[in-house]
Amino acid sequence: MKNRRGQVTIFIIIAVVLVAAIVGILIFRNQLTPSLPSAEISPIQTTLLSCLESYTKTGVSVLESQGGYIYLPEFEAGSNYMPFSSQLDFMGNGIPYWYYVSGNNIQKEQVPSKTEMQEQLARYIEEKIRNCRFDSYYEQGFAIKQGEPSAKVTINQENIDISLTMNLGITKGEETSNLKTHNIKLNTNLGRLYDTSKKLYQYEQDSLFLENYGVDILRLYAPVDGIEITCSPKVWAANNIFNDLQNGIESNTQALKTKGGQYTLTKDENKYFITDFSSTENIRFLNSKDWTYSFEVDSEDPILIANPVGNQPGLGILGFCYVPYHFVYNIKYPVLVQVSSGDETFQFPLAVVILGNNPRKPLDATASQIQVPELCKYKNTLVNVKTIDNKMNPINSDISFECFGTKCNIGSTANGILNEQFPQCVNGYILARTEGYREAKYLYSTTKSGEVTIVLNKLYNLNVDLKLDGIKYSNKAIIIFDSDNGAKTISYPEQKSVELSEGQYEITAYIYKDSQLKLESTTTEQCVDVPRQGLGGLFGLTQKKCFDLDIPEQVLSSALAGGGKVSYYALENELVSSRTIELNAKSLPEPKTLEQLQENYILFESKNLDINVN
Questions:
Q1: Residue among 586, 603, 571, 568 nearest 509 (CA)
Q2: Helix count and strand count (H, E) for the chain
Q3: Which of 587, 596, 524 has its CA nearest to residue 556?
């Protein structure tokens, strides 16, 4: 009985404490946190959640359209060797390449992780949410104060969870309320589309199926290697080959498909264009002739010529000739991959690289970040860099270091000074770049600490006015401004301006006119040694066999008709006050024959340009 009375007493005490707590909360609730009626607060919170949903949808759309990025990685320009920058210009918007080869020939990846996408979307929400408008509530007498936002995003397969922590203080009259957490769930296929894109990208890196299709296109649209039985040379124009390749790459790339999705293979459809990759999403592959590309063929001339030979045993005796040909190409072009489900599309570009008629080598390992070159990992030599203009004024510039084809970003000068660690290398170049100035480089061995001063020359934009025999010329011309810092070439009249800085230039102008110059077909005799017939052939004896080499008729659509050269030192004082550089060239005789055309090229070397800068 005593034990029972003790248990009852404990329960009574607990009950009293609970009742007291509830009563205290009810009494002091309004004093501690006065609140507005929920019916008045609810629309304000609904407005905030609507803003949160709207900004999240916008952020998701940007992520999907920019390969998983809202805030793009640092832009890296391409080069003549590798034309790709780090981004594909698609309808005026830059999309980071997931795979590309940098201007200094380094394979790089920019595949964002799902964590990075979540962080970028959270950052975007935090930046935008305070733009939410509450004007209609201000008119009703509400005072609304927003605190610092902090967002957390979780990307799932079919939706996104967004948790926003932000104090939202609401006051009307003497009543105040504070809302702190705001959560929504947005239905979107972003997570699933990203996962499919990542798998497809890895499939490309493992199999190089885009490069293999590219090699097939090359062999279909361009002369690569082969043999034809003919005594006439085979002639191809490189520009025509490249134009055919562009058309072939564009149409054949768009014909590629994957298994699954809304695509169903018909009985008569060409299975060649169906890849082995399977997906429930719809996948498209895009290429455009307007995008950056690079086509190269191993030839010194714009015309590819394969000459006939007749030294195969027996063929010369029978009177046959054959033309063997083998041309080596380097091809680089972008492909934009679009992975779709419903009305959502996730897209990312990658570079297709074919070197020496063969696909590039696969990457050794998968990376989700840009690979840092080995040289750039070890920066242990302190160098003080100063960047100034030619009037000794400090200039803020981006500084990098280049050695043996590897380029490392170092930092930026502040008030013209940067004191930073450099990787060790003998005879490397310290590069300084700033907008509006010619890029400058300084040869320097970073095996020991030191100080470097780099002078940058300001660039001035000048209009180019070309004349022929004193008369304004408006047809086709090529003008080259060659200096120690490189050459600038403009195609006139499409381009009528050039940026020059102080320095020595060798200016050359080639003026072309329309021509119907016909190169008549010719026949020349070509002789080769072939095995003798009969017993003499067994002992390696040969005899001379001759045959006619027929060169077909050709028509030149344009011919050199004028031009010349001039050396010119551009002074900055002159460039500052000038707007136009006028070039006056001398004409050449209109060629009627091949011999006259050759004479024009000889005469061209002695022609001078008259130059006037005003």
A1: 586
A2: 12, 37
A3: 596
Give the chain's end-to-end CA distance (angstroms, integer). Answer: 117
In this structure, the number of other CB atoms found within 10 A of the CB of residue 113 comes to: 13
Rounded-to-integer distance, Cα 340 and Cα 334, Å: 19
- 162 neighbors 151 (Cβ within 8 angstroms): yes
Cβ contact 218:244 at 8 Å? no
Measure the CA–CA gap between 118 and 63, rounded to whole angstroms. 10
Q: Which two tokens stand for residue 603?
A: 């005469």
Phi and psi, residue 543, nearest 5°: -140, 155
Q: Which residue has the tokens 């699933």?
A: 192
Tokens for 272? Answer: 């060649």
Instruction: For residues 231 and 228, give the distance between their C-alpha atoms in angstroms, rounded to a whole number.
Output: 9
Indicate the burial class of 39 (C-beta count within 10 angstroms; 0-12, 13-18, 19 or more).
exposed
Backbone angles phi, psi at 197, to 5 degrees: -60, -40
- Any idea how long the chain is? 614
Burial 52-83 (b: 16+ CB within 10 A, else e): beebbeebbebbbbbbbbbeebeebebeeebb
List average pLDDT for each run of 10 residues in the chain, which is 614 residues long. Answer: 56 68 57 53 84 93 94 82 81 90 80 94 92 83 86 94 89 81 92 95 93 93 81 73 92 89 58 87 92 83 68 38 82 94 94 91 51 68 93 92 83 93 90 89 91 92 92 86 79 84 90 72 63 55 66 64 90 90 90 73 86 91
b/e per residue 220-253 (b: at least 16 CB within 10 A)? ebbbbeeeeeebbbbebebeebbeebbebbbebb
8 A C-beta contact, residue 397 and residue 442: no
Is residue 527 within a helix (H) or strand (E), and if so which, with residue range? strand 522-531
Q: Residue 415: left (phi > 0), alpha (psi -120 to 50), or beta?
A: left
Contacts of residue 519, Cβ cutoff 8 Å, sequence gap at least 6: 553, 554, 555, 556, 594
Burial (0-12, 13-18, 19+ Cβ within 10 Å), 28: exposed
- Hey, is 230 helix, strand or coil? coil
**3-state DSSP: the chain helix, strand, coil percent, rounded to 5?**
25, 45, 30
Q: Which residues contact 182 (CB under 8 A, 6 or more apart)?
A: 45, 48, 49, 52, 163, 164, 165, 166, 168
